Structures are given as structure tokens and as C-alpha cells.
């Protein structure tokens, strides 16, 4: 069942204007009319299925467009100083474009790279994160896609799955702007739903299990927090030992064992970012004038095995309306 997220900002129109040079790497352009090739740097904060899917979706879009691309793919392994080092290296390279996956790497790239187009993805709020001037008119060398979540609809799933739940626990990294924004949204949504929110913060993935154990709640909600998602199994273990449902914010976490979500397809999000990159590289589209985009459709994703492990039966009507049910 495809849903239109009420909370998404309506920045889906793509304004393509000529202005910024298509390529900063002059040596990659074949002026004789032959095939052009491009050098793209990809910086990713940490490995986990959603971010990996966004990266692969991006690359697929460029492949589908017939572009010949050489990629320099770097992963900061969750370390902000490494993300900054990667951005510094990219700034000195002769790249045509940089893809920054997730807020920390996007911030590092924007602070360092000023003369090369930067496409961002898996960023919740690029304005709050200081990446662009506005959703509609980024104003610099940066644009891309956001994975801002319909937190109200996701938490609303508890009304169908666990109607007796009165409290929900959220473990997140206080150092991620992306996460703080989602927690703020969750507080607002929970207040509307009559749920109490309990929070526990972590500084690294090794603290996720202890943080989850510290919360006395009826359910858990997992935002797209890179630190927590990279150690999701630790939180799932705690939830299953207590027979509590876990509502995730994206489908990959449901496939890994969370119970349900109205989620984004990160591969599609990355693909959409790649389509924007194609327009920058081949049509001279100016990132400053390209609105930050979001996905317009959400998917209801359930995990029946996760329900069995916590002794819960998913409502038949919900299962029948789901886009995907992992078993």
C-alpha cells in the first residue's frame, strides 16, 4: 500500500537550469565528440544496508544513463575525523562530482569542497544540518535527496500492532543532527498518539545494547540513526528478550528483524540522486537551483518472523495491505 508522507516537505519538482559547469575535471571531457567519462568520489559515513543501497542505486542511475564513470569509494567507518580527511582528499582531486551519503559526510564535504558539485543523499534535514540555504533553492554547490521520515505514520503503526502500548523507547546518537531532528518529530507524533517517549543516547555502536536495556518501555522506535542502525541486532536482541515490538524507519531494518515500518526504498532514493547527478554532469544543471528532493511514496513493510519471535500476531488486515512481508 503506497502512502504519501504527510510530513515530507514538498520539494519534489526538479528545476533544471543551465549555469554551473558540467564538469570540473576538464581532463575527462572528450571535446572530439567521443564518449565522455567522469570521475566521482563517494564518501559514506558507515556501512549498513540502507546506505549501501543508496550508493548502489546512485551508481545504477548513472549506468542506466550510459555514463562511463570511475568511482573513488571511501567509507569513514563511523568516524567524523575520517570523513573530514576523505573530504579533504577529494577537494584536492580532479573530480567531476562528489556523492556524500548521510549527514556527517555531507557536512564534512560541504565544509571542504567548494568548487565541485556535491550530491547528498540519506540526509534528513539539509537545512538544519547547514548543507543548503533552503529546500527549494540550495544556493551553493550542493543538492540531492532527503530521507526525512513520516515519523507520525510510523509510530501510528503501534495503534494497529500493539494498541495497549503506552510508551516507546528511542536509542540514538546525540551527535547526529539527523537523529535529533527525528527524535523531535517523534516527540510531537507521540504526544498526538498519547505515547510517552523515553530516550537513551549513545556515542558509538557498542553502547546500543546497554542503552536499549536502560529503557523501561512497551515498544522501541529506531530512527535512521547510522550508529544505531549499524548495530541494530543489539537492540533487536533486547526487544525480543522482552517480547516488545520494534518499529523501524526504513525497510532494511525490518528485513533485519524489526517488526514494521512505513519505509523508504533507499535504493530508489539513491537512484533518484543519481538521476540528479546525470543532469548536473551532462546538462549543466546548477545544484544551487535544483530543489532537494524526497521520495513521494512509502511502502508498508512487515516482518512476520519478528512477530512470531515476540509472540505477537499481526492483524490480518495490516498484512493484506502490506507491500512487503518478510518471513
Task: Identify the overall geometry.
Answer: elongated
| H/E topology pattern | EHEHEHEEHEHEHEHHEHEHEHHE
Largest sheet, in brief, is:
5 strands, parallel
Q: In what range is the share of β-strand residues?
A: 15-25%
Rounded radius of gyration (Å): 20 Å
How much helix is in the residues?
25-40%
The poorly predicted ranges are: 1-27
Q: Mean of residue pLDDT?
A: 89
Q: Could you walk me through the main structural features you see in this protein, from its secondary elements to its overall organization?
A:
By secondary structure, this protein is an alpha/beta fold. Helix content is 38%, strand content 20%. It is built from 12 helices and 12 strands. It has a 5-stranded parallel sheet with strand order 2-1-3-4-5, with helices on both faces. Helix 1 packs parallel to helix 10 and helix 4 packs across helix 5. The longest helix has 18 residues. It is elongated, with a radius of gyration of 20 Å. The N terminus is likely disordered.
Identify the notable features of this structure and list them briefly.
327 residues, alpha/beta, five-stranded parallel beta sheet, four-stranded parallel beta sheet, 20% strand, elongated, disordered N terminus
Describe the structure in brief.
This protein is of the alpha/beta class and 327 residues long. The protein has helices spanning 49-64, 80-92, 103-112, 151-161, 177-193, 208-213, 226-229, 232-241, 251-256, 266-283, 304-309, 316-321, and strands at 37-44, 68-75, 97-101, 118-123, 142-146, 167-173, 196-202, 220-222, 246-248, 260-263, 299-303, 324-326. A 5-stranded parallel β-sheet has the order 2-1-3-4-5, sandwiched between helices. A 4-stranded parallel β-sheet has the order 7-6-8-9.
Amino acid at each position: 500500500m503506497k502512502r504519501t508522507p504527510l510530513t515530507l516537505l514538498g520539494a519534489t519538482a526538479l528545476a533544471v537550469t543551465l549555469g554551473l559547469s558540467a564538469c570540473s575535471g576538464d581532463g575527462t571531457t572528450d571535446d572530439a565528440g567521443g564518449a565522455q567519462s567522469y570521475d566521482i568520489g563517494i564518501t559514506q559515513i558507515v556501512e549498513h544496508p540502507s546506505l549501501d543501497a543508496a550508493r548502489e542505486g546512485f551508481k545504477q542511475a548513472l549506468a542506466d544513463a550510459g555514463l562511463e564513470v570511475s568511482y573513488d569509494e571511501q567509507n569513514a567507518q563511523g568516524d567524523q575525523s575520517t570523513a573530514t580527511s576523505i573530504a579533504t582528499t577529494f577537494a584536492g582531486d580532479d573530480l567531476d562530482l562528489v556523492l556524500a551519503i548521510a549527514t556527517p559526510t555531507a557536512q564534512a564535504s560541504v565544509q571542504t569542497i567548494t568548487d565541485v558539485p556535491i550530491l547528498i543523499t540519506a540526509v534528513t534535514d539539509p537545512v538544519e544540518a547547514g548543507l543548503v540555504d533552503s529546500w527549494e533553492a540550495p544556493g551553493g554547490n550542493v543538492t540531492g535527496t532527503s530521507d526525512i521520515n513520516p515519523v507520525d505514520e510510523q509510530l501510528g503503526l503501534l495503534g494497529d500492532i500493539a494498541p495497549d502500548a503506552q510508551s516507546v523507547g528511542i536509542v540514538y546518537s546525540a551527535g547526529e543532527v539527523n537523529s535529533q531532528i527525528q527524535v523531535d518529530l517523534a516527540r510531537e507524533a507521540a504526544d498526538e498518539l498519547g505515547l510517552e517517549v523515553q530516550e537513551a543516547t549513545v556515542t558509538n555502536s557498542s553502547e546500543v545494547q546497554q542503552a536499549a536495556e536502560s529503557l523501561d518501555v512497551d515498544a522501541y522506535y529506531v530512527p535512521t540513526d547510522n550508529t544505531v542502525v549499524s548495530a541494530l541486532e543489539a537492540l533487536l536482541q533486547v526487544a525480543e528478550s522482552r517480547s516488545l515490538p520494534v518499529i523501524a524507519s526504513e525497510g532494511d531494518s525490518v528485513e533485519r528483524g524489526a517488526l514494521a515500518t512505513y519505509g523508504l526504498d533507499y535504493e530508489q532514493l539513491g537512484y533518484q540522486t543519481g538521476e540528479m547527478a546525470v543532469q548536473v554532469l551532462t546538462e549543466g544543471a546548477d545544484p544551487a537551483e535544483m530543489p532537494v528532493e524526497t521520495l513521494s511514496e512509502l511502502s508498508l513493510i512487515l516482518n512476520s518472523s519478528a512477530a512470531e519471535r515476540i509472540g505477537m500476531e499481526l492483524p490480518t488486515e495490516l498484512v493484506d495491505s502490506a507491500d512487503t512481508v518478510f518471513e
